[in-house]
Write a structure and sequence with these properties.
Blueprint: H1 20-30, H2 38-49
Helix pairs in contact: 1-2
Amino acid sequence: MQPLALGGEDTDGNVQPLCHGCHLDKTAEDFPDDRPALRESAARHQDRALGRGPSYPRPGKPHS
């Protein structure tokens, strides 16, 4: 898969469905100089998804 920003084609064959954390990881790999904080953000997201970090706030509930 090649990002559109790096010359990839806008076709069905150049699409990769990813969860939010994996998308952050791939973006950090594709744009290492432009996105230095993405790896840390992806790690936090994965920790939350695996129950190892603070949970996301629920609608109408304060974040703890």
